[in-house]
């Protein structure tokens, strides 16, 4: 049986971890720059302005900055201020996670038609995640060790990472379940239009991201050794960003004309309540299609 605490095994796992960081970081940089034209289309006015584009763009940009900082840290040969680097990097990575989860959360809220219990639950989950993320940023301690680089210190140095990863994973699982239940509520609407898109692609993208987060949660909890415990933490960030960003683009493109107009009809009272979302528009159309039609009364003609 493998002794995961053996120094030679830890060294091998550390090399694998470094290679995985480079591979995952390179894949995400490729994903970012090959899809950067989407943000540019908003800057140039080719697409109608949406407030959610800020969550989309900022989350992706923060993930790029996090990638650059991590790649610099694992390749640097001279001593650096590891504590300052780790604090800044953790803050940016947690903020990137928050942006991706925010897009996820807003979609779930829209599917539930802004039902107050769902809104309250989503906001509560976001606040809990924020508090736990701040705990992770404050409690994590790192120092420079010759030959190893930036190394965590403390008797239970993995505890902040464990709490943060578990919190993010639990939150996204809850949101996945809420989205699935919300889609099931509309029965036959799953077979057409945007509901089919949400039911198929939406769940596929989000379940894929959650599965990578599950790997990160498993490894950080079993704690075989340092490198293995953190092996999937960075890939889980990339998975969440890529999946939510790709589905965001698909969802926005679904209902946009080249001139930025919306082709679907909806009751005017929807606009008076809040800003329209793509899901709201489809719900309005579906509600309109369910309204009973009554025969037009025939007026008797006098002879």
Structure report:
Helices cover 70% and strands 3% of the residues. The protein starts with 6 loop residues before the first helix and ends in a 13-residue tail after the last helix. Strand 1 and strand 2 form a beta hairpin. Helix 1 packs antiparallel against helix 3, helix 4 runs parallel beside helix 6 and helix 6 packs antiparallel against helix 7. The chain is an all-alpha fold. It is globular and about 55 Å long. It contains eleven helices and two strands. It has a two-stranded antiparallel sheet with strand order 1-2.
Briefly summarize what is shown.
The protein is mostly helical and 303 residues long.
First-to-last CA distance: 102 Å
| Helix fraction bin | over 70%
Class from secondary-structure proportions: mainly alpha
Please tally the helical runs, counting DSSP H or I stretches of 4 or more residues: 11
Q: Sum up the overall morphology in one term.
A: globular
Strand order of the largest sheet: 1-2
- The value of Rg in angstroms is 24 Å
Q: Strand portion, in percent?
A: under 5%
Largest sheet: 2 strands, antiparallel
Low-pLDDT segments: 257-303
pLDDT averaged over residues: 78
> What sequence of helices (H) and strands (E) makes up the elements?
HHHHHEEHHHHHH
Strand tally = 2
């Amino acid at each position: 049986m493998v002794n995961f605490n053996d120094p030679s095994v830890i060294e091998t796992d550390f090399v694998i971890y470094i290679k995985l960081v480079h591979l995952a970081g390179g894949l995400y940089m490729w994903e970012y720059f090959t899809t950067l034209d989407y943000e540019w289309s908003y800057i140039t006015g080719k697409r109608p302005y949406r407030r959610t584009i800020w969550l989309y763009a900022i989350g992706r940009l923060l993930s790029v900055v996090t990638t650059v900082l991590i790649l610099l840290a694992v390749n640097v040969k001279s001593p650096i201020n590891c504590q300052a680097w780790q604090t800044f990097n953790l803050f940016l990575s947690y903020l990137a996670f928050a942006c991706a989860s925010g897009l996820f959360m807003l979609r779930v809220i829209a599917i539930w038609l802004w039902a107050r219990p769902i809104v309250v639950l989503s906001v509560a989950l976001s606040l809990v995640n924020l508090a736990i993320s701040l705990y992770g940023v404050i409690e994590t301690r790192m120092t420079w060790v010759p030959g190893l680089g930036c190394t965590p210190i403390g008797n239970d140095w993995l505890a902040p990472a464990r709490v943060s990863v578990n919190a993010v994973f639990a939150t996204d699982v809850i949101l996945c379940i809420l989205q699935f239940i919300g889609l099931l509520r509309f029965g036959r609407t799953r077979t057409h239009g945007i509901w089919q898109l949400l039911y198929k692609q939406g769940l596929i993208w989000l379940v894929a991201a959650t599965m990578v987060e599950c790997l990160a949660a498993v490894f950080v909890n079993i704690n075989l050794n340092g490198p293995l415990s953190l092996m999937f933490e960075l890939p889980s960030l990339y998975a969440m960003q890529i999946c939510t960003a790709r589905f965001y683009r698909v969802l926005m493109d679904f209902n946009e004309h080249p001139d930025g107009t919306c082709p679907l009809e909806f009751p005017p009272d929807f606009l008076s309540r809040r800003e329209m979302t793509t899901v709201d528009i489809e719900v309005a159309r579906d509600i309109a299609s369910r309204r009973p039609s009554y025969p037009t009364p025939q007026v008797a003609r006098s002879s």
